[in-house]
Task: structure prediction
Amino acid sequence: MAKQTSLFTFTGKAGNMIGYYRDGKHYFRSMPETVRQTTATRRAAQRFGAASSKARLIRGAFANDLDVHCDGGHINRLNKTIIKGGIRNTEAIAGFRFNQHTGTDRFFTVAPTLSEDGILHIPPQALPQFRGISTLEVKVIAARIHFGERRVTGTETAMIVLDAREVFAGAALNVDVPGKGALIVALQVRGICGNRASFNRKYLAADIIAVQEPQTKQVFHKPEHQQQAVLQQRLQSLAAPTHQPTAQGSAYAPSSPPVIQRE
Result:
């Protein structure tokens, strides 16, 4: 009786052998003893490695707070965005969509802006109307990342719910997260159907909307009489009325955008 033997098959690397599967059959080949790289390919490999490391930190900074599922190609898209913009140019990722099918501009036609003092301003505007969407859940996620030390030094979030049938009066949020590194701000918007978020990816957006590189600022000390004048102006502004009648005269509207409270 003939003895039967079985062949162990595998895919990937095992020792100095590489197994792979093609056209329904398994193949094996030995690894080359030396791999020749040109200067260009070596630099490309280094850029890709640096971009992948940077992208991994960014994804990890927002992973726990994002409620919108990322599309299947977001990892490669973020890597390409970083490489195209330059490894040291973190600001190039502003506008990146975690869900490529929908952007936050679908909900806010007037884009939010981040001022130098770390205040995110969402301008007043009329909200778009979508069938079945009664409210919009708006979440701001701010992360401070030190790429040199390869760590996230801090994150903060804030959330508001907007009635899609009403004109949005605007809002402001202090997103200047304490710590070292670049400040990266993401805006997430989910359309709400009844009491739950929509399952339709057209109504689920999460974008990186602003990036601030760390800057070394010079401190100039003002004369004492100027400091007293500034303090007096602030006290007067706090004492001034904060509400004024609307054009209809039947309701009151804030004279400045409300501040979103952090979670």
Summary: The helical segments are 39-63, 74-85, 224-239. The radius of gyration is 26 Å. Residues 2 and 168 are 82 Å apart (CA to CA). The longest helix spans residues 39-63.
